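Below is a filled-in request sheet from our internal design queue. Each sheet records the structural input a requester submitted and the sequence that came back. We keep these sheets so that new team members can see what a complete request looks like end to end.

REQUESTER: design group, bay 2
PRIORITY: normal
MODE: inverse folding
CHAIN LENGTH: 435
BACKBONE (tokenized):
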């Protein structure tokens, strides 16, 4: 009998239909430069042009796509949720989604030194066009250089830090560029932070963010340093250049921050999340409003059922595992969606032998029909019921002794079995200990 529930945390999808990167709030601050002390290293002192899109190839590859490196948390960017990233040695990263497997990230670009104004009308992976440039230029490592990343902190305050240390322009000398791209779980902030910056000439770099569409570079947030890095302003185009020279550069600790606008975020919980069909489930809306109150709710329950109630109840008539989704809309027509994959499990209401099973949280409540006769129909003088269980997916697999229950009690609580197994089968025998 299936008597165990699996709780599978699903994927949260945040849809900000009317917000683009140009709507992000931009700010500048200065603090102390904090270099990574323990991190995952990428490449070496000879790194030049490599892409880092697969943790199995830390030395880098020329191929632009791969399974991606783990962000360590769900990061919301331009209306999408990302959990993977790739690094191009030329000072920028691209965001990706693990659901795409071998092509979770794709760093394809016509110029790897200018990733923010890349255009490709036939680009097949638009949601993986999300990229962030900290100091995009034709860069290379040198003696004492390193490229590394680490996810720091604990939920919900984790931070992914990608760090370039002692990089230089390709074929240049007497240069040292130190900077980080940071993704902050709290607030979904993007930060670019600079350490020591030493230039041997005057040139331009790309600093900022870019996302879909791919046919035109219209969704961007870039940096203009015409009046100096301290007085930087948002750029007017995706290819806006930030100028750096021996006298015009970001000071150590300079931090450029982009924060998403305040929009609604969808969220919900359900109880119970598992049980035997027909299974009645109560859903509770836990969404948060942005600048405008939430005005409507739309639920899909995974079995064809829908609801427009804020806190609906739904009955799952048939056994199965169901994905639930909630979309909210606020007074400004902004929508937010949260989806939990395989969130509800309804089990076959069957029995194993003469045993019946109901789950109560982490405990299994077993009951059975009274046994008063033996296999020949003769009266049975029993002292105990012996209860056995089988924790496999096969009801005919081996059973193990669980407990003696004094006759004629016909129920037992198997405490703390939890939700770690999906199946549990029980059998009971009436026993006369004098036999």
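RETURNED SEQUENCE:
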């Amino acid at each position: 009998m299936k008597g165990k529930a699996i709780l599978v945390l699903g994927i949260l999808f945040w849809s900000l239909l009317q917000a683009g990167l140009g709507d992000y709030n931009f700010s500048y601050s200065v603090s102390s430069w904090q270099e990574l002390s323990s991190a995952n290293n990428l490449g070496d002192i000879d790194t030049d042009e490599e892409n880092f899109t697969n943790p199995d190839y830390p030395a880098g590859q020329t191929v632009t796509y791969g399974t991606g490196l783990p962000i360590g948390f769900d990061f919301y960017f331009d209306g999408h949720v990302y959990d993977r990233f790739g690094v191009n040695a030329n000072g920028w990263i691209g965001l990706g989604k693990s659901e795409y497997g071998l092509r979770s990230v794709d760093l394809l670009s016509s110029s790897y030194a200018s990733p923010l104004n890349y255009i490709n009308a036939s680009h097949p992976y638009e949601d993986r066009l999300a990229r962030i440039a900290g100091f995009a230029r034709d860069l290379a490592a040198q003696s004492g250089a390193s490229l590394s990343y680490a996810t720091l902190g604990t939920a919900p305050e984790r931070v992914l830090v990608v760090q370039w240390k002692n990089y230089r322009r390709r074929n240049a000398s007497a240069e040292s560029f130190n900077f980080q791209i940071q993704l902050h779980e709290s607030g979904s902030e993007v930060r670019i932070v600079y350490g020591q910056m030493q230039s041997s000439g005057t040139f331009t770099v790309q600093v900022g963010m870019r996302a879909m569409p791919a046919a035109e570079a219209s969704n961007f947030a870039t940096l203009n340093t015409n009046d100096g890095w301290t007085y930087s302003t948002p750029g007017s185009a995706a290819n806006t250049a930030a100028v750096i020279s021996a006298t015009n550069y970001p000071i150590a600790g300079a931090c450029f921050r982009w924060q998403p606008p305040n929009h609604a975020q969808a969220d919900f919980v359900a109880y119970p999340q598992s049980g035997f069909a027909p299974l009645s489930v109560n859903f509770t809306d836990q969404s948060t409003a942005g600048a405008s109150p939430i005005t409507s709710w739309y639920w899909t329950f995974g079995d064809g059922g829908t609801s427009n109630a804020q806190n609906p109840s739904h009955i799952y008539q048939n056994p199965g595992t169901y994905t639930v989704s909630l979309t909210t809309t606020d007074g400004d027509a902004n929508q937010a969606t949260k989806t939990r994959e395989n969130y509800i499990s309804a089990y076959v209401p069957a029995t194993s032998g003469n045993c019946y099973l109901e789950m109560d949280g982490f405990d299994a409540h077993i009951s059975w029909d009274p046994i008063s006769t033996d296999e020949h129909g003769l009266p049975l003088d029993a002292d105990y019921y012996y209860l056995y269980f089988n924790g496999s997916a096969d009801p005919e697999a081996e059973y193990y002794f669980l407990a003696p229950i004094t006759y004629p009690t016909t129920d037992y609580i198997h405490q703390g079995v939890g939700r770690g197994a999906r199946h549990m089968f029980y059998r009971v025998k009436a026993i006369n200990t004098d036999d």
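SHEET NOTES:
- Residues 1-18 have pLDDT under 50 and may be disordered.
- The two ends are 30 Å apart (CA to CA).
FILED BY: M.R.
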